[in-house]
């Protein structure tokens, strides 16, 4: 028989199998090398399940205590890095833990642990508990990042820079307004995350293989013990459902899309041509060839890793489409994308936080990049305030732009006479339209770039952090 494959004796489902498995199939099938990260959840789930079985009278109190003692031993082995995986036998974390339990407390009692239970519910239980805990940590990272956004926005509120559309200079804005444009998108991610967590945190134990539990298991008791927020109410759905993974991948993909765009802006702003920001050494690297280089690798990786996060989402959605009801082994393919996605998202938020907390801004460069044409709208608005219809003022201001281009005189330096010649309704106070700070301050309706509007956004953001 092929080495490492011993279906009859040692493998837990070996009873009806007679031949050996193709050794490659053994490896192809096993998930222990990645699902062992779930060891703790698997053990806690097993203890809760055994306790409920004891309450139901299907195992004795003494048997439960033995099982719990044994499982705590197994847990200690994992924690100490002493758990020895038996290749070809320990197919996944569930079978591995049970095999070891049998060795510690004897197969007679250990063999009762799985009474009325299926790995189909067990894997979902482990994944949901693990994911819930991870997502709560990510929630903390996101809140920490947003606190930095809010703090910087507050401290650097006087910095004015160009705002862009089509990556062309459009109108002057506050740097803080830019910060909050992403900050509020991330805050929406935070709201979504909190909702996702509440759906992830549902108890599948008691669903059985698909049809439910035959021994009157008190599922509510398990829900409480494992810290779930509620039950999965349909046993067939409960074992089939990986929406909690899909939803996490979708959530993380959108967050990473925001991260990526944010990073792209900062990459541009950190070039010598822009020079609005400078990354700390801690988040940049040099070139092995060109001594003068300081590259924004952190930001490039944030941008690059978004593709991988999105790929896991698309890939796993594809895995699920067309699956027939309840458990199919395809679903094992949910674990690795989940693990990688969570790590990618968690690391990325922390890196983004570090980048933002340590970068320096250059107010002079920001200001130097402003150009009088960015006030063309303000010139039009000036005439609007004198009662001229906007469609007309837009045209008039356009003629001022043309005049400036034609003469090579910056728009704000056109003489009063030159302006008056374009439209007689220009008066001497037109000079006031050519002020970047005034321009920014005029945008004081809620959501705009004036100081008061930006301060209000900061308040809104802070409230969302809770
Ligand atoms: N390792 C499996 C998974 O991740 C556990 C469930 C196995 N269930 C089964 N019926 N073979 O999906």
UniProtKB/TrEMBL annotation:
Domain Fumarate lyase N-terminal positions: 15-311
UniProt entry keywords in alphabetical sequence: Lyase
EC numbers, comma separated: 4.3.2.1
GO molecular function, one term: argininosuccinate lyase activity
PROSITE patterns (UniProt xref): FUMARATE_LYASES
SUPFAM superfamilies given in the database record: L-aspartase-like
One GO term (biological process): L-arginine biosynthetic process via ornithine
GO cellular component, one term: cytosol
UniProt xrefs under Pfam families: ASL_C2, Lyase_1
Pathway(s) where this gene product acts: Amino-acid biosynthesis; L-arginine biosynthesis; L-arginine from L-ornithine and carbamoyl phosphate: step 3/3
Keyword S-adenosyl-L-methionine: no
Domain Argininosuccinate lyase C-terminal: 373-441
Catalysed reaction equations from the record: 2-(N(omega)-L-arginino)succinate = fumarate + L-arginine
PANTHER family per record: ARGININOSUCCINATE LYASE
Family of this protein: Belongs to the lyase 1 family. Argininosuccinate lyase subfamily.
Protein name as annotated: argininosuccinate lyase
Organism encoding this protein: Purpureocillium lavendulum
Lineage: Eukaryota, Fungi, Dikarya, Ascomycota, Pezizomycotina
Chain's gene name: argH
